[in-house]
Amino acid sequence: MTTRSLHPTAAPPNPGRGVRPTGAVPVGRRFLFADRRRATLTVLGVAASLLLVLVLDGIFAGAVDRVTYYIRTSPADVFVSQAGVRTMHMSVSTLPADAPDRVAEVPGVAWAAPIAFASGSVAGPQGRQLTYLVGYDTRTGGGGPRALVAGRLPGAGEAILDEQAADRLGIGLGDRFTVMGMPVRAVGFSTSGSSITNTTVFVDLAEFARIHDDRVSYVLAGLDAGADPNTVADRIRTGVDEVTVQSREQFTESEARIVTDMSADLLRLMSTIGLVIALAVIALGLMTATLNRLRDFAVLKALGAQTPRLARAVAMQVLLTVVLASAVATTAALALARLLPTAEPAVQITITATAVAQTTATALLVGLIAALWPLRRIATLDAATAFRETR
Amino acid sequence: MNTTENTSAATAGTPGPAAGSQAVSAGHSRVPVLTVRGLTKTYGSGDTAVDAVRSVDLDVASGEVLLVMGPSGSGKTTLLLMLGALLRPTAGSIAVTGRDNRDVDIAAAPEKHLPALRSHTFGFIFQDYALLDALTATENIAVAANLAGTTGSAAHHRATELLDRVGLEHRATARPSQMSGGEQQRVAVARALSNDPPVLLADEPTANLDASRGRDLARLLRRLADEDHRSVVIVSHDDRLREIADRVLWLEDGQFRQIASMTIDPVCRMSVERTGAHLEWHEQTIWFCSEGCKREFAENPDSFQP
Known about the structure:
Strand order of the largest sheet of chain A: 2-3-8-5-7-6
Oligomer: heterodimer
Radius of gyration of chain B: 20 Å
Largest sheet of chain B: 6 strands, mixed
Helix content of chain A: 40-55%
Shape of chain A: elongated
Strand content of chain A: 15-25%
Helix content of chain B: 25-40%
Largest interface: A-B, 43 and 56 residues
CATH architecture of the largest domain in chain B: 3-Layer(aba) Sandwich
Number of helices of chain A: 12
Distance between the termini of chain A: 25 Å
Shape of chain B: globular
Number of helices of chain B: 7
Strand order of the largest sheet of chain B: 6-7-8-3-9-10
Number of strands of chain A: 10
Largest sheet of chain A: 6 strands, mixed, barrel
Distance between the termini of chain B: 20 Å
Number of domains of chain B: 2
Order of helices and strands of chain A: HHHEHEEEEHEEEHEHEHHHHH
CATH class of the largest domain in chain B: Alpha Beta
Number of strands of chain B: 14
Number of domains of chain A: 2
């Protein structure tokens, strides 16, 4: 054995080369990764539950994206609807026949286009689906699909169908299908108008009148260059009776909100289930890890560690577990968001930074709740148990 | 060395308190670092009360190695836990002089002060080493330095120096599971030194080591007392540690007993009193812990070293 002497109060020698440690020994991190298999399983378990939450949220956000696609991509700056009606989804709006002309007369309005809108069903050889039926003036194009990916604009007895719905329902260009029970021919395909639950069919206003009724549901208005949407909206409210006027952003927000409100309970339930699973996995992992390391914690206490320091070690394990799990879950969710639509085009998964941040923050809170039992066990741990031989 | 001294008034073979209030004093004429008076620990109450330690008085000097021996259940570990501020005594006082020369009564110190007291005043050496298997040798030492207030590079360098001192600088990044028992115990000693404590408390430090490594460790502990002027209190069954002890105290039924008249059973190597089973061999009296040992010795005396 080496017999070098060292006075206990001697100053430390010059540091050697290499990485210089800062702060205290990262006990929590070392404890977590000492058993890599267990750490991996815990992280993957938590990641799976966070993935469930993220994907549910992403599917919902994707559905909202699809539902609001028509409004978000419309060239209109201002949307006029029946007084008190703020959405298209789950709403019926009827405006006076002269409403488009009166809107067009308002200073600042460059153009005004009426659309007719109704909910119904579309059926093809391979099935049936809920649809929004939009009637628009095909001569001006105002209120029609943002772009055609195939075919041409519709005439009498013709319609434009979303390409994803057409594929699902087995409808090709030139094929006949029914909208609200009335036969039409598919002459064009639009895109991004289908969600899990419904699609969008565009017809000429006259055809809409034949299929459903003759009505003006909304007026879409484009503004003069430099005109302020809010100012013009105020003018329309003053100049046209019994209408609700919203900017494109307001209308999009209203549409998204009603979809969110309708699905909030289900979404909340599913997210809660995911987080409860996360709670169970973290709690189980931490409890097992803590019980296996009680002797180590007792030794640290015997050496002078106070409970807050040991609590930090446990909290660090939670933090690392959740952050790693969140990273894994986010990566997997992004991969799913890219891959799933190739298999099921109607499903869009939208993973936002906000959703990731919220899920991670909630998981951290859940993790800290899961840490309460181990923390209590450590707080009441008798340091003297360090002297009981366990190996 | 090996200057086993009498304990105070207790008569060999007669249970009783260690000389009333007379302390088992330091074998060296140095200033006591640890002063224990009337130390008692009682578990339970009423009819079921058990005195694990009874009215023990003790002084331990700076640089002294004190070996406390005794049979299982005699109160050795209870005494050690109380000395190390890990167990509250039922009665009595334990005054310890820190590196700053201030005396603290551990028995009277508020509970919340005990962790800091431990981390600054004592170095603990455990029977099974008690290293954290998630940490490297260096980190095991540095974490104890952290608890004493030294962090970052300073803690790392302290750990490196101490590993060097115990001859394990080449094992700095090894984990306990990758080290032999002897190496682990040397790391544990280095960890006990990381806070530069005036008192080292060792619980059966050689119990899990073979003879050679046990001797090495004993010498290391002796050196720590001599070179650093640390007080070293060892509780152990291991008779080999007598070699390095300045004093050996015998604890039985929670009390120190006089061990001047004690001897070693050549069969089981336990310390025994000069009463009971014995026989005459080569003009000397050999004492045994039991008739069984006596019989075993009598059958083949040449195979045992009296």
